[in-house]
Design a protein that fits this description.
Elements lengths: L5 H21 L3 H38 L1 H26 L8 H28 L5 H18 L5 H9 L5 H6 L2
Bound molecules: fe (ii) ion.
């Protein structure tokens, strides 16, 4: 497997983020936790963006042909929805301070959601994807280039951030807390 293999690249990202989650759990100060959370969320934003822009469309298209549209849709739509939930939580956390009520709980739920998603990708999607007729080296090279671009320029605002901003709760973290 080459270093630009798309699936190997995504798995390496998963390991990096899992490591950050573990460090977060072990961290003893809010300051340390805040730093780790920011790092994990930056990684996650880039990772989900690359998957949604490049990896998922290629896999969905080839899976439609390989296992039929119904099965491919159910597998890929579920992954999309898991990304959506993760991005909603990232958007909410983006409006909060580490000292806010529920901040740590919200990040913990984000990490649990991501770990579940990683398990499904590595257990179901990736093994199916591996059987497809996709040039994963070429795709991986494209993904690596896009990753560098996103690192340099930042990830574009995503729909969930707009949703949270427009809801008004972003202006009042106290309101957000009362919602729970
Ligand atoms: Fe993903």
């Amino acid at each position: 497997m080459s270093t630009t293999d798309a699936i190997a690249m995504l798995k390496a990202d998963h390991r990096a983020v899992k490591e950050l989650f573990e460090q977060f759990e072990k961290a003893e100060t809010k300051r340390e936790k805040a730093k780790l959370a920011t790092q994990a969320m930056t990684e996650l934003k880039i990772h989900t963006q690359i998957e949604e822009e490049l990896f998922y469309p290629a896999v969905r298209k080839a899976l439609n042909k390989a296992i039929g549209k119904a099965e491919a849709t159910s597998l890929m739509d579920e992954a999309d929805e898991e990304h959506h939930v993760a991005k909603l939580l990232i958007a909410e956390l983006g409006t909060m301070k580490a000292s806010d009520d529920h901040w740590e709980a919200k990040f913990t739920v984000l990490s649990e959601n991501v770990l579940h998603h990683v398990k499904e990708e590595e257990g179901e999607m990736f093994p199916q994807a591996r059987k497809l007729d996709i040039d994963y080296d070429a795709l991986g090279a494209e993904m690596a280039a896009r990753k560098e671009e996103l690192k340099a320029e930042g990830v574009p605002t995503f729909a969930e951030q707009t949703l949270i901003a427009e809801s008004g709760i972003a202006d009042s973290p106290a309101e957000m807390t009362r919602m729970h």
